[in-house]
Write a structure and sequence with these properties.
The protein is 72% helix and 2% strand.
Length: 290
């Protein structure tokens, strides 16, 4: 197997805590959407229908929480940046979607205090997080403190077949995500269940974020730094499988969109599992077992 030598800068404390804070916030959003999809009119920033859309978004939020925790726990910037930039892309796009559809959000007192409070919290978070990511990201890049090391560390690169699969997944997610953002109603006809203009764009923002993560992960060419992306991929597929068990009857079977949705999920799961297995085999414990 080929190897690549890398030297990484340590993760600075502000970036570490920003990732932990972001993980906590997306966990809370996922809790409402995934566990209580029928209560979004009362407890969430906007009403999400049908419930399958809510649990899909909730699964995405919860898997992103794992990405951010893994990034925060990373020793170096090379691994953590695979969590930072997809989060920045997603939060920036979601802020734009929010401002574009602000009339759909629970800003009126008639929505109830919990929903109204959730809306103001949503606006504050999505306005602050992209700015914080940029500022602290600039601080991180400027720090450029080399990690202590003894000699040159050789790390295995991703196999060509795995990189090709990640590129394919990234292309599908990015292209379709951009289509949902730009032309939500026509693009939503290719989605396996009904989406409104707002939910189509919300899903599109997630697809672009996930696609960015896959593209960036394969370009790292390093199994150890790609581990957070692999963990997120596996968690995303498991949570989406649970979502389908709960509300999968909303999908139109055996339509092309439904088959395409399952195919992409399987591809993401295979990619994540493959990368995790390779990373485990190259860890010190994995090497000892061999």
């Amino acid at each position: 197997m080929k190897t690549a030598s890398t030297e990484t800068a340590p993760l600075i404390r502000p970036m570490r805590w920003l990732l932990y804070a972001a993980a906590f916030l997306v966990f809370l959003a996922g809790l409402v959407l995934f566990v209580f999809p029928l209560r979004t009119a009362e407890w969430f920033a906007w009403t999400v229908n049908p419930p399958m859309t809510a649990v899909f978004l909730g699964a995405a939020y919860w898997s992103a929480a794992g990405l951010e925790v893994a990034g925060a726990r990373s020793a170096g910037w090379d691994a953590a940046r695979l969590a930072v930039w997809p989060v920045f892309v997603f939060t920036t796009l979601t802020l734009g979607v929010t401002l574009l559809h602000l009339d759909r959000f629970h800003l009126s007192p008639a929505a109830g205090p919990l929903a109204q409070g959730a809306t103001w919290a949503w606006l504050a978070i999505y306005a602050a997080v992209p700015v914080a990511m940029l500022v602290i990201g600039w601080m991180q890049v400027r720090s450029r403190r080399p990690a202590p090391k003894s000699g040159t560390v050789a790390r295995p690169v991703l196999p060509a077949a795995l990189r090709l699969l990640m590129v394919g997944i990234a292309a599908v997610l990015l292209l379709y995500g951009v289509a949902l953002l730009a032309v939500p109603i026509p693009a939503a006809t290719l989605w396996p269940w009904p989406l409104s203009e707002l939910t189509a764009r919300a899903v599109g923002a997630w697809l672009v974020g996930l696609g960015w993560s896959a593209a960036q992960g394969q370009s790292s060419r390093d199994l150890r730094t790609v581990r957070p992306v692999a963990l997120t991929s596996v968690a995303f597929v498991i949570l989406q499988a649970l979502a389908l068990l709960r509300y999968g009857d909303v999908l139109s079977w055996p339509s092309a969109p439904a088959i395409g949705f399952i195919t992409v999920l399987l591809a993401i799961g295979v990619t994540g599992g493959w990368a995790l297995a390779l990373a485990r085999s190259t860890s010190p414990r994995g090497a000892e077992r061999r």
